[in-house]
Amino acid sequence: MGADHTRSAPPTPPGVRRILVVTVVPLFLATLVAAIVLWPRDAPRPEATDDAPRYHGTVTRVVSEPCPSNPAVPEGTPTTAAGPCGTVTVRVQTGPDAGQEVQTPIPAGPGAPRVDVGDDIILVSLIDPEDPSISTYNIAEHQRGKPLVWLAVLFAAAIVAFGRLRGLAALGGLAASFAILLTFVLPGISAGRPPLAVAIVGASLIMFVVLYLTHGISAQTSVAVLGTLASLVLTGLLGLAATGATHLTGFGSEDATTLSMFRGDVDLHGLLLAGIIIGSLGVLDDVTVTQAAAVNELRHANPNLSRRELYRSATRVGRAHIASVVNTIVLAYAGASLPLLLLLTADSRALGQIVTSEFLTTEIVRSVVATLGLIAAVPLTTALAAVVTTAGRGEAGARTGEPTPLVPRPATDRAEALRALSTPPTRNTSPATPSGWPDPDRSTDTTW
Description:
The protein is an alpha+beta fold.
């Protein structure tokens, strides 16, 4: 496969390639061995539940009517309307009553779907416990299969149309990421494996597959892989230290508490660390690939740059990238926790108590640890890319760290320069080619 970004990198010297192979291949093999050891062979299967049967249907009619008054409420007492009230006629598409029309009450209550004529919905069949022969239907939610399929098609088409073969490779990497998460990371944590170890191994597998599949097997991609792997390990260590210093237990959300009731053997503290690592991986590979590409492009634009100059120039690019990515991380966590943040406005406790509470401290630790890992990724990847890009090229500057002296431009007489600038332009008198155009091989340089 080709090299990364817009142009192929210059051939890497054989000695550098051997060093990269000797470094990357053992790390990949170690990741595979760790994945085999941690593979969830005894993952618990989901318990069977007695859920009500669900069938598809289409709304054909909606009749709204005033909600009946509640006689138990004294007159004049302000009450909250329990509406909307009325009936919905639905043509059943699947199940024993397929093809028939049934009536259901209009969904009401918090989170109830709003239905209209033509909506595709999901019906729940409820059996009367006193008379099993009697069943009624209620509307559970909308069918979302078709919109999701169209969104997926639009997503894939846009990526392939813009990225072409590279976009197709990116889709393959995305599929591989989900496959590793669904077959290794999540089942491994459910089986009671150490979440931190599972997350690091799973993230490393994703990194190897995605980076080499998307950006090609090259020295530049190998640099990004090494930078990402080092940053992942550093992020895990920082997360371990931060969660230990803040005494986080992992019970900072309602989801974690619910999970503890269904999976009592899951280490929620380790699960918190695993979430930090998996969440950081997507931004980490973006930063490392960008830094490796920046060093390669700078080297291509000016081969006279020394190793130190390459590092400084690419680091300036990394600073600008990190400045925007930090805001992206914080806003991403804030968007995912927006209901939680809104809940803080209704909290009557002091601000210090709110900020130091478990659920908000968890979000702060997530953002800070992920950001520190990203900041560390820039100098690590840039330094490694500068060494690999300049190694074995034969330039004195690359070996000594000093810039290669440039050939000075010939001095030009001041009077000659002024005379050339003040001379009015003349028509082209150069010999023309048989087609009538001037000779393309003639010199276009001015007389300086």
